[in-house]
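> agent: user asked for a holo structure of the chain below bound to S-adenosylmethionine. Plan: (1) validate sequence alphabet, (2) canonicalize SMILES, (3) run complex prediction with ligand conditioning, (4) return tokens. Step 1... ok. Step 2... ok. Step 3 dispatched.
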Amino acid sequence: MTAQSPSPLSSDAWEERYQAGPPRWDLGHPAPAFKTLLESADAPKPSSAIVLGAGRGHDAVFFAQHGFAVTAVDFAPSAIQALEEQAQAQDLPLKPLQRDIFGLLPEYAGQFDYAIEHTCFCAIDPALRPAYVELVANLLVPGGELLAVFFTHSRSGGPPFGTTAAEVRQLFEPHFEIVTLEPVTNSIPSRQGEEHFGRLRKR
Ligand SMILES: C[S@@+](CC[C@H](N)C(=O)[O-])C[C@H]1O[C@@H](n2cnc3c(N)ncnc32)[C@H](O)[C@@H]1O
């Protein structure tokens, strides 16, 4: 009998990708768009934040370094382990959570001022995007914000499954005011012209 491969979007499949390493999506540093945001005059004030599909934790650590109380969620054990090691090495107040993001409710409902998204939306089955929008809306306090780097590439298949600014608007507008949704100008070279930064406020 041959062992079956796990479904490509399962936690086992993501864990296998981490173990095969180095992960091709891992920048090794925070997303440039988040650096720009936190250096800007409109930077969000340090408060509670949840990072969805946090991976090895570069964005989560970055927000924690800037004073945010960060909960970082990923269902791949190797990702959580790497994230924990980074947080401990820097003595940062970061809570790692090895969970499926779609199992966070009702436990974490309404607990966060910010939700942070960077290549998680493109990693889930596109059929789950409406559920993802509901999830983020329910994790946030009223007036809370999603800070997102969306992967707006147009190649077929995935992961990463591409999206468009129009799809983001159409999916999120029922629950969110779109404060900003603009092309990222300082993406890494391989993602130039394929990212949008979104700041979306829960209605
Ligand atoms: C493309 S990686 C991005 C990781 C990280 N955000 C980064 O930019 O390096 C997608 C991550 O989402 C995680 N993931 C995918 N679906 C998930 C789910 N349903 N619940 C929790 N984590 C999930 C994967 O384990 C993986 O670490």
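> agent: step 4 complete. Summary for user: Residues 11-16+27-202 form a domain with the Rossmann fold fold (CATH 3.40.50.150). The chain has one domain: 11-16+27-202.
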